[in-house]
Amino acid sequence: MRNHARVYAMARPAALPVPGDRRVSAFTKPDVFQRWGEDAAGVRPHAVAQGDNVITMFDVIGEDWWTGGGITAKKVSAQLRAIGDRPVEIQINSAGGDMFEGIAIYNVLREHPQDITVKVMGMAASAASIIAMAGDTIEIGAASFIMIHNCWVLAIGNRHDMAETAEWLTPFDQAMVDVYSARTGADAKEVARWMDAETWMSGSTAIERGFADAMLAADQVTTDDAAKSKDREVNELRALELTLVAAGRSRTEARATINKIKGTPGAAHDAGTPGAADPGLTSALAGLLATLKS
To answer: Does the keyword Cytoplasm apply (predicted)?
Structure first.
């Protein structure tokens, strides 16, 4: 049985590479956003778990065009400066988003001089799972998940372009293998197989495999029904956008198509935006996504 009380503060992996050329972007797959909406929407920390040294990540990784929010390295850097030279708690419920922004956030966190405790409140998938690995201690809810996979990109071109893209992505996948392997103690080849298979790990499995150290106390996690409804609606928009892009449309064209259904996005509290009450929107978008995938 692995000793899950161990602390990793002296063995944080080296920084991950961040591409200088961002013409290729790595995203979370549309079905992951849908699963986030179904399994972990609205999960929030219990009020008593908050503190002035806590950074919450209950959003997409990278800037989010649909809400104006998103978790970025710039924002996390500013929060760390405000916290100062103290231990930090990171609370995560995210399906991921921009993989390379997640890598940048991981690099920012690993440079923090004090201990970092990561708490996976609902989901740490894709880019968010990379961020979670910056924790010296990682706690996870019994019904929470960590998901790891290879970089997932949207690219257009002939077979030579595709081969070039695959070659370009190889070092980033290998760097993630190295981080997961260092954190868990698992063989690198086994970690690579887990990534190839897009592996979802429940709380107990994550602890067994070394991706987490301990279970969160049940009273630290709650579900906000209002946040759950909003999370589901925005996740359908994100998933639909990526599905349309994967079908060959530009992001601008995909957003324009969605706006014909939804309306122009803006501040989250304006009427007609993802944050506004619209009981039929989520089911309509889910139906459209199912039709596109069939």
So the answer is: yes
